[in-house]
Every structure is written in structure tokens, then in C-alpha cells.
Design brief:
about 575 residues; alpha/beta; six-stranded mixed beta sheet; five-stranded mixed beta sheet; 22 strands; about 40% helix; globular
């Protein structure tokens, strides 16, 4: 069926609601109609994510219903009707437009299939959904969120019974069930209220997070002045609860960004990776002379920070915060409790944190991009311990990725800005008590381990044409060899790559990584959730000036090669 035929079907079929039909009638641009209907919104390894609106290639009631019906059929076939009715599925959602509506849609579809549903009573962080799955001993979890994407987007992520987002092998099975649904008319949106239970385990989640506290000096905590912004998202309640229960008293929230609002009216992008996202927080910190600014994204799995300096406030990168947290956790943990402690990072994350771990004698594991692979490692470690598999028996301490995502502890299987905010503030409190800032601590790490300059370039290429161009770029890179001089190795993760000892090969992924002779590296990958191609850089230099100059040359080389300059 062509995109025009699909459009006509949705426009004229009374199964689709009046709001949908009116939205379609308002579209006059044929290119926009094509983008709405040229394909089905893909249920990939990360679930659904796309622009909200009418059409098969959009996030709406019908595409969410289709994904949920596929998930329900998979669970019924895999676990049986009795287990589905007794253990069920946990559903959470963030503060985006339509998130609560989509979560209720999913609850209705699953309950209508005889599956018990624990539906979060309020918008809460994604890591709390991960925690909730294990808390309720559920078979699976669903969270409606598009994380840090622009306001036009929403998404739908699926978690397994361990609270880990589906990894490729699991996702492939669910995808086959979703793809088998070719007729929207077969979806039952009515629901069974007797199987839907409103759930709020915020206090339980907060208590689990507090177990990761590493610093006990109450006076130092009370002396730290914090500005916090949830960027109109889900972090406000749990982050403030955790910090106050841990002893922090000077927490100044950004009033204009506290209230949930899916339009994110005060920011260009609700992404703490975006330098502009913390502008209001920094302005407030200047007025109150705060020591640190924290900002969490809409589903509160990422956190960005700015630190007071003599010249104002300086933003810190995800790699820098990851290295600081690594150092803080390893120097504030009783290692005698662990037989085989381990940390996990992704292949596009700086090696600085890994170098710190190795110096402490800690095993380091690298996974593909996506925190689900870090969560998978936690599950593998725990299963190995239960099964007596000494080759894979490790104790998880910390996992992180360059994109502002960190996890300490095993209360969740996803990055957690709530526990990260706790530990960041404890680090800052200790530093202040010692007459330092986190920037001073960072410079001390550089002095010991060498200077690392990390960067990310992200280029958006929208629509069908953009996706085709991104695919062409990756094909050209693979065909032409390394564009860099003095390349030590090239790793193509679209082919099997050996993982660490005892863990076989990594799943395949559309990533190319170039390691240079001096240890610097460059990685190129299309985004799995947005129409973007991303280029990651980690450059080593004798000092900041040398690293900056080297980075500029590398950026020019790869961007010219891809036709982006």
C-alpha cells in the first residue's frame, strides 16, 4: 500500500477518531503526508520514538496500541496467561505532552488482553520505572518518554523482568510480534479496570537510592548551596527528597522550570547536554552565590552540572562528571565487601574514568552505546553469581556513558539522575569542605592521568532523505578506509567484535571507531532515536591547548570527509 493509500484510509475510516481525521485534513504538503505514512514507525531495539501526530510513522494512540498489543502477545506466549494476570507489567511516564494519555492507552490494551497493569500514579523518572519492575516482580515494564528529545517527540521503551531495557535479542522477539499486527482494527482499546492498579513507589525508590550515599559529613552538606532545575520534567520530587533526606538544606529550585510542562517553554531543548539548558539555573546561582547547579532532563535519567568558579559558572561534560564520580566512588567504598568489583562504560565514552578504575585494580567492561547494555551487564553479573559461573562473576559498582548518564548501585538497570544528583552533591560538599571545587578535583585528575578533551558533534538530517543520506555516509566511510593519519586501528561494530573474556561477542551496531597511535579516538554512529549522525571525539594532549588544537584538526578532517563542512 502506498503512502497516499494509507493516508486516504486513515482519513476516511471511521475507526480512526475525529481528532486524527481533522489533523490529517489540515496537512496540505504532500512531502509531509509522505513522511507521516511512508513507513510504520519502527519498533526497534529501543522501542518506539518519533514525532507525535497522525500517521503510521508518528507517535499516536494507534501506533502505541499496536506496539502494546505486540508486547502483550509476546508476554502471553512466553509466560502464559496466569503469570501475565498475576505478575503483569509496570507502566510509567514522563511529563511530555500525551505521555500520560499514551500510558493509559497501553494500560487499557494490556488489561484488555488479561494482563495485570501497575500504572504509575504520577509522572516519575525512568529509573524509577526500572526499579518498580523489580519491586513488583513484574514480567516487564513500559515507560512513555522521549528522554531529552525536542518537545515534538515522544517514545515508548520496554523493560524486561529485571528492569533492564530490552537488548537486541529480546527486542527481536517482541518486534516480530509487533510487526505481525497489520490491521489496527484488531486492537482493543477498551481495557479492564479490574486489572489496572495505580502505583506509587516513590518513597521506596528514594530509600533505595539513599543506600548509595558515600559521604556522611552533615555540616559539609548543610554548607553546600545548590540550585536545581528539573527542566519541567519528572526529577523535582525524587531529587529534592533524596537530597533533603541526605542532609542537604540549601536547595534552591528554579521556579520557572519546576512545574511539569511538555512544551518546555523556557528552554530551546530540555537536554542537559545542551549548554543553553542550564542558563536559567546559572543566572539564579549567580544571584544567590550557589556552589553548584544541577539540571535533570524530562525523564530524569540524565543530569548536567555547572560549578562556581572565580569567573562565574563552568559547565562540565558527561565524561568529566563520569571520571569524577568514578574517582569519588572508588575512594569512598569499602572494597573488602566485594570479591570482583567491576565498572562498565560504553565504547564512545572517554577512557579517563576507565584509567582511574584500572589504577584501583577494578575490572573495566566496555559495551555498545545505550545504557541497556550496561544494565544487561548487571544482570549477567548477578546471574553468574547465582549459577556459580566464576568467569562472569563480578560485583557491579558503577556504570556511565558520555551522554550525562550514570548509575551507582543495582536498584535500577538504567541510568539514574536521582542517584547521580545525590553523589554529585556529596562530591561537591566534600570538595568545598576541603577548600576546593569539582573543577579543582578535575584538574587534579588531569595532572595524574593526562589531559583528555572530549567532544560530540551532532548533525540533524530530517525526513526520509535525511535518513538515506546518513546511511550513505556510513557506507562511504566503510568503503574508503580511515580518513586520519597515524591510525592504529579501525573497529566496525556492524560486524562481530569480541567482548571481554567470558562474554563472547558484542551485539552488532552501526558504529565505526578509529583509534589513533597516540590513544585518541573518533567514533561515528547514526542516532538510534533521532534523525542525526553523531561524531564522538576523545583527544589526548600534553595540556589543554595542545588537545584543543588536535581536536580542531580531527573535526575538520571527518566533517569534510562526510560533506558536513
Amino acid at each position: 500500500m502506498s503512502y497516499k493509500e494509507r493516508y486516504e484510509q486513515w482519513l476516511n475510516d471511521e475507526f480512526f477518531d475525529e481528532t486524527t481525521r481533522k489533523e490529517l485534513e489540515a496537512i496540505t504538503d504532500d512531502k509531509e503526508i509522505e513522511d507521516c505514512f511512508y513507513r510504520d514507525l519502527e519498533f526497534g531495539t529501543g522501542g518506539l520514538r518519533g514525532v507525535m501526530g497522525a500517521g503510521t510513522n508518528r507517535m499516536n494512540k494507534y501506533t502505541v496500541g499496536k506496539a502494546t498489543m505486540g508486547l502483550g502477545r509476546y508476554l502471553l506466549d512466553t509466560y502464559g496467561a496466569e503469570a501475565c494476570k498475576n505478575r503483569g507489567v509496570v507502566i510509567g511516564y514522563d511529563t511530555r505532552n500525551n505521555s500520560e494519555f499514551f500510558s493509559r492507552t497501553a494500560a487499557n490494551v494490556l488489561s484488555g488482553m488479561g494482563v495485570r497493569v501497575y500504572l504509575h500514579a504520577h509522572a516519575r523518572p525512568t529509573p524509577q520505572l526500572s526499579f518498580s519492575v523489580k519491586f513488583w516482580n513484574a514480567l516487564a515494564g513500559v515507560v512513555v518518554t522521549a528522554s531529552h528529545n525536542p518537545k515534538e517527540y515522544n517514545g515508548y521503551k520496554v523493560y524486561d523482568e529485571f528492569g533492564c531495557q530490552l537488548v537486541p535479542g529480546q527486542a527481536k522477539q517482541v518486534i516480530s510480534y509487533v510487526d505481525a499486527i497489520t490491521d489496527y482494527h484488531t486492537i482493543n482499546f477498551t481495557g479492564d479496570d479490574s486489572l489496572i492498579f495505580m502505583a506509587d513507589v516513590t518513597d521506596n525508590f528514594v530509600m533505595a537510592v539513599l543506600k548509595q550515599s558515600r559521604y556522611a559529613d552533615l555540616a559539609a552538606k548543610q554548607n553546600l548551596k545548590i540550585v536545581y532545575t528539573p527542566l519541567h520534567g519528572t526529577g523535582n520530587v525524587p531529587v529534592q527528597k533524596v537530597l533533603r533526606m541526605d542532609g542537604f538544606t540549601q536547595i534552591d529550585s528554579v521556579a520557572d522550570q519546576v512545574n511539569p510542562d511538555g512544551d518546555f517553554p523556557t528552554v530551546v531543548s530540555p537536554n542537559p547536554e545542551d549548554r543553553r539548558a542550564l542558563e536559567l539555573g546559572i543566572a539564579q546561582a549567580k544571584r544567590t552565590d550557589a556552589d553548584i547547579v544541577l539540571g535533570t532532563d524530562p525523564d530524569s535519567d540524565r543530569v548536567g552540572i555547572a560549578v562556581k568558579t572565580a569567573d562565574g559558572y563552568q559547565l562540565m561534560t558527561g565524561n568529566q562528571v563520569g571520571a569524577l564520580l568514578m574517582n569519588f566512588i572508588l575512594t569512598h567504598t569499602d572494597m573488602s565487601k566485594y570479591q570482583h568489583p567491576a565498572v562498565v562504560k560504553t565504547v564512545v565514552t572517554s577512557e579517563l574514568g576507565a584509567d582511574i578504575a584500572r589504577k584501583h585494580g577494578i575490572a573495566v567492561f566496555s559495551t555498545l552505546t545505550g545504557f541497556k547494555f550496561i544494565g544487561e551487564k548487571i544482570t549477567q553479573f548477578e546471574q553468574a553469581k547465582r549459577n556459580g559461573n566464576k568467569e562472569q562473576d563480578y560485583d557491579f559498582l558503577f556504570g556511565y556513558e558520555e551522554s550525562y548518564g550514570y548509575l551507582a548501585g543495582t536498584h535500577a538497570r538504567d541510568k539514574d539522575a536521582v542517584v547521580s544528583s545525590l553523589l554529585i552533591c556529596e562530591m561537591a560538599a566534600e570538595a568545598k569542605a576541603n577548600g576546593k571545587t569539582l573543577l579543582d578535583e578535575m584538574n587534579a585528575i588531569y595532572a595524574e592521568y593526562g589531559y583528555y578533551r572530549d567532544a560530540l558533534d551532532s548533525f540533524t538530517l530530517k525526513g526520509k532523505d535525511g535518513l538515506e543520506k546518513i546511511a550513505s555516509m556510513m557506507t562511504e566511510l566503510r568503503a574508503s578506509g580511515s580518513p586520519f593519519e597515524r591510525t592504529a586501528s579501525v573497529t566496525d561494530y556492524s560486524k562481530p567484535v569480541e567482548a571481554e573474556t567470558g562474554f563472547g561477542t558484542l551485539p552488532t551496531s552501526n558504529v565505526l571507531k578509529y583509534v589513533l597511535e597516540d590513544g585518541s579516538w573518533i567514533a561515528v554512529r547514526p542516532s538510534g532515536t533521532e534523525p542525526k549522525i553523531k561524531i564522538y571525539y576523545s583527544v589526548k594532549g600534553a595540556d589543554k591547548a595542545a588537545a584543543e588544537k588536535k581536536l580542531e584538526g580531527i573535526q575538520n578532517t571527518i566533517q569534510t570527509k562526510l560533506g558536513l563542512k
